[in-house]
Fold each of these.
Amino acid sequence: MSQVISLADIRRLAADFAQSGIVAAPLPTDSGKVFYQKVAAEEVQNIVLDGSLKCVNSIKEFLFPRHEVLYTFLRKGNDVELTDAPVFDTPQLILGCRPCESASLPILDPVFAWDFNDRFFQSRRAMTTVVSIACQKADSDCFCTDVGGSPENTSGADAILYPLDGDRFEVRLLTEKGKVLFAGKTTESSDVGHACEGPKATLDTAKITRWLNSHFNDPLWSELAHQCVGCGACTSVCPTCHCFDIVDEGSYQKGRRVKNWDYCQSALFTLHASGHNPRPDQGARQRQRITHKFAIYPEKFGAILCTGCGNCSRLCSAALGIKPALEKISSEAAEDLMPVPPLWVRNTQDK
Amino acid sequence: MQNQLQDLARRLLAEKKVDVVIGYGLSGNGRVGAFFATDEGQCDKLVWNEHCTQNLVVYLTRPEVKKLGRAAIVVKGCDARALVVLANEGQLQREEVIAIGMVCAGVVDEGGQRCAKCEICTSRAPANVDEVIGDPASVPAGPASAEERFAGGKYVKLEKLRAMPRAERFAWWKKELSRCVRCSACRQVCPLCYCKVCVADKNRPVRIETSATPSANFAWNILRAFHLAGRCVGCGACTAACPAGIDLDLLNLTLAQTAETEFGAVSGTVPGALPLIGSFSQEDKEDFIQ
């Protein structure tokens, strides 16, 4: 038996949730593009839940906001009074995100709980329930299957919706949070939903990692450097990019220390106060982005820092993005890497 | 046209007239973006179709691309206007670049929709270029007068915005700009944002906060629009790149419309023209200058 809920009931659920919490869901803007946005109770009719749309942005903004106050300071005579920003304690529902979005959350967890427990990320994560929707369409920018995902990847989700014909959804409850959210809202049915077929996997990520570890000064990086204008739009729509900058704002007397998104594709990202820049050109910045995702992060945290969502490629004016870059690396790696002979062969050769 | 373009590129490289042809190529995922042909053998990868939306002129001032040497660049009529502005502002020696102008019937955005800018385009046959590919007579000339362009029902979004009462328009921009993430993609893709150090990047002292707050978002976007006033050629690169889906073209085109209707200045159409915001005329109607 499956659990089924109607679209009208989902909208009602979202409207109820929005009364005392935050609902984030795909919502069209005036220009017709769809973004994960905060939805007010009266806007729930406009939420797009078809499993085929491609939101331009990522859900990460609701767990790792682009701008967040850490604490405020106030100078009083010779003393400085510091006030911590309040802990996030509002229930939050992310509704109708793609599985490649929810999958980014378990990947990001360790980086915010590694040498320091980032209460800003962690409190949001604890207060958030994620309901994804199984993809009904994949496009040529999708490559979730290359990085271990699928159109119905449940990683990071508390429940997943499968569109059925008519305005109904099958709900698969995955965690306690998901069960609580949908308790008493679903009916039993024999209808079972399906996801679309995933994009055909063509990349060998282990081979790509090996290539990255041995090609720091490859000409490919300057090839990418010519094409990339360093706009960094790819990083802001990426569900796994998580770099930030900490700055003080306000005056000498009164102000705040804030955390803002930062962009590795910008020259300013690594510019030292001395004027020296260890990543002096766009090639070095492209290399950093790809190496971070496919070599550094996997080595440190055991997961590829990419869910194959394709947001970067869909937005890139220069037709770059992670997938086209990986394809270039793959073709280089195929020509370049001689297969390493098994150990016993090498031992024999040595003798 | 694509074959003609490839032949020309091959010839320019073979005759050593240029070191690189900056054109469009096909990416692995089927999208069209910048392609740098540095030898004759690569010229068959140059493409020309309605997906050639990117304005390639931005590459001419990129240090990484300058290192490639003398360049020929593929431009549409709108992009060619940016080239004129760069030369007028002393950012490049026009004779050192070979501009290959493509006769253009209009391009599409990433969603496959015809770009709004193409509806009001008057430069479908590129001007001020060194080579023209395609038959200029094959494309309609486009709306001739500013009235027809800006008030003829062609750029609906712009007209709708301008018709709003001031308070409503302010509220609309407030909502749109609230999505800005302060990534500066708009600046990076703009061929006319060439400052080596942008005012937004200055931090000793900070001129514009880097936070994506309503006040800083307004400060950044309005400042950028002012810096482009009378200069923006309406290529739409900023709108296409914006990860927040903000129609930045509306901000810049509003100023372009004012520049045209009030001063008769259409950016990038007159080689050698003085910048509108950097010059005055004794015929100006305001008397404070006289």
Amino acid sequence: MKKILIIDDDVDIIDLVSNRLKKNNYDVIFANDGDNGIRKALEHRPDLIIIDVMMPRLPGPEAVKLLKSYEQTQHIPILFFTAMNSYLPTEVNEINVNGQFYPAIPKPFEPNKLLASVKLLLGEQ
Amino acid sequence: MEFLEGKSIEKRRTWYNFNMRLKKEELFFVTSFEQASILRKYAILFLVSSVIPMVLLYYVYFRNTYIGKAVMILMALGVLVGYFSIRSLLTKAVKIAEENRKSIEPFLKPEIAKELRGKEKNELLALNHMFSAVTRQLEANIEELRQKNEELKALDLLKDDFVNNVSHELRLPLTISQESIRQVSEEMFGKVNETQARYLNLSLRNIDRLKSMIDNMLDVSKIEKGKLELYKKDADLNQLIEEVIADFSLKIEKKGLTIKSDLPAQAIRTNIDKDRITQVLVNLVGNACKFTEKGQITIAARDKGDYVECSVEDSGVGIHPKDMPYLFSKFHQIGRMKNQQEKGTGLGLVISKDLIELHDGQIRVESKEGTGTTFIFTLPKASDQGGMYL
């Protein structure tokens, strides 16, 4: 069973997203902020990390910079969760961290879109 | 105007009448003023030029003759007549000044009115004072209005920001509710009975409505601020129309209607923001569906040479002529239909019109009550007609 780590400061989002993922036979672990997220990633070595862009203290892109700096976690695919897409002119599909582009899906999410992105990143499609 | 606030209707009317009279009498007023000042100047000359020769003549030639005395008397009479005519003209000017002062006094700031009172003794000064008092009052009013205007502008900006922020803040909790209900209704946590499913669906439908209202409000606020940017690319309008029809077909079939396209065989190459034009078509087809009980909806497109014309036609209830002028205004919803499940936001057509106009196109409507409605809009063609179409 593939393991997915969700990092989001909104517990409701974590709850709902884990339901969806568990229903589709994924093992889900989660963290409520960037620091804990990095700790859990190092500890559990997930197959995919879904991370919120806007979080207090350590924002998503900063956390991803750190994750990419550790040897144990740098290979793990990243999927950004973004609630800020409506501030921007069009839907954000990728987020740039240190010149590297990572896929992003808007937080008012469509379950099918989420599952499709997850499958794609895990190489299941 | 603030200086009229709290004043009785009578006083407001007097102010109005004063303004009207001022316009009518302006000419006379100005003329009397000029006459008065000219005569005043000449009055001194008149006196000096009459009295000095009189005195000289009297002493040199006519001191002892009857003719001399008669001339003297006539001259003295002339001087008196002159003096009185000047006097009467000046009095007339002063009377007008005084009348006007009285009629504007209630509207002047107390300190300005006080300054003006009693000044009428010196006729010309009174006129002068009245003019400057009125001018100062007007300046004060203009300044007041300017400040009010600034305040309103700031308030308007605040309102826009507020709408923007509130809309964004509303989206997330709404999405969370939607997803929760969706998960329950998908029976992720156990069986849902028919009645429960019906109410969960009702809830989901209304969350959808609320979401589209928020989206519409954001769109309107973006358009009003001129912040909505189009991402224009070459696109095949035929393909876009077919996609919209495919999206709607299930819903339309459910209602017992049919939807078809009337398109040329060749691709229609337009230069458009695909998402935004899809939004327009979804709005128009959604409306057509809402107001049609039986019959069909047709989306047609034609190449008109310099531009492309697209239309959405239905065989619905049509639009009452009374509603026509308000069709593209904000929050105007035309007569609701009985048992109508979907309620609109009253912004769909406003946004559609704005989006078409942002594409340098035009939108119009033709409708006959009881027969149906057709919305027709134009779109720009793709600039490079020779290139390969992708």
